[in-house]
Amino acid sequence: MKPSLLNIIQKNISLLTSDSIPEYEYIPLHDKPLPSLQKLSQIIDLFRIIIFPGYYGESASDVDTLKFHMGVNQERLFSLLKEQLQTGLCFNAPEDQCIESHKLANGIAKALIEKLPELKRVVSTDVKATFDGDPAAKSYGEVIFCYPTIRAVFNYRIAHELLKLNVPVIPRVLTELAHSETGIDIHPGAKIGEYFSIDHGTGVVIGETSIIGNRVRLYQGVTLGAKRFSLDEDGNPMNTPRHPIIEDNVVVYANTSILGRITIGRDSIIGGNVWLTTSVPPGSRILQQKASVSSFSEGLGI
């Protein structure tokens, strides 16, 4: 006789809540309020409305209207930020630290609001770099409104500031929202200079400990990754510098992988489809080896 649905459910409840299955330890019970993906998306939207007025949200009709909406949106942003920061600060914290999270969230939200003019200045350099690097772009407005690189780098800039303010989990959520939207994966821990651009963008990966200078341009499919990582005594990965350093004025062409804690010297050009695991001096020109040609038929020799 086949078990009834009720019996199956009861059996599942017993198994799913068991503390005797070793693998279940990998997914511990989370008994605290979690950040809201929906509200964090709203926070990003508000940042975009404030920093790119007229492109997102309501169109700006005149200066007085713009100033009014700017004030209202900053108040909304502060309120949402404070709420979500509180959940983020409690994410992995002991209960006694969660009690203090309200006061801490208030201060961090205020500090981020204070950084809005500087965030706008830095993001504006990314817009210019993207426009200057693409003859297909007809205006700065087109770059702001259409280009995935601006969306991804925009989220990264905000996430990086939150990470510097010691906010857990939320910076990762913000960059992963952009990753899902654009295919560009930038860890919030990476350090990226001004006038940064990514052409096309799909498949770009920038690891946590990457350091990127000013006026650097990457093309689609570029990976700034780790070659290997160290393990502690328990066999867990150690968070040590393991990603590349890209100095000023470097261009990296499509589908190139630059791996490990190596340095790409300033003013270098790294060609497409290159696999690079050693440092190169300033002014280098690195190209892939010539393709190997061989003859075969019906799949033989591949």
Word description of this protein:
By secondary structure, this protein is of the alpha/beta class. The protein folds into two domains: 150 residues, serine acetyltransferase, domain 1 (Orthogonal Bundle), CATH 1.10.3130; 100 residues, UDP N-Acetylglucosamine Acyltransferase, domain 1, CATH 2.160.10. The strands form three sheets. A five-stranded parallel beta sheet has the order 1-4-7-10-13. The protein has a five-stranded parallel beta sheet with strand order 3-6-9-12-14. Helix 2 packs antiparallel against helix 3, helix 2 packs across helix 9 and helix 6 packs antiparallel against helix 8. The longest helix has 27 residues. It is globular and about 70 Å long. The model has no long low-confidence stretch (mean pLDDT 91).
**What string, H for helix and E for strand, traces the elements in order?**
HHHHHHHHHEEEEEEEEEEEEEE
Major sheet strand order: 1-4-7-10-13
How large is the share of residues in beta strands? 5-15%
Class computed from helices, strands and strand pairing: alpha/beta
Number of folding domains? Answer: 2
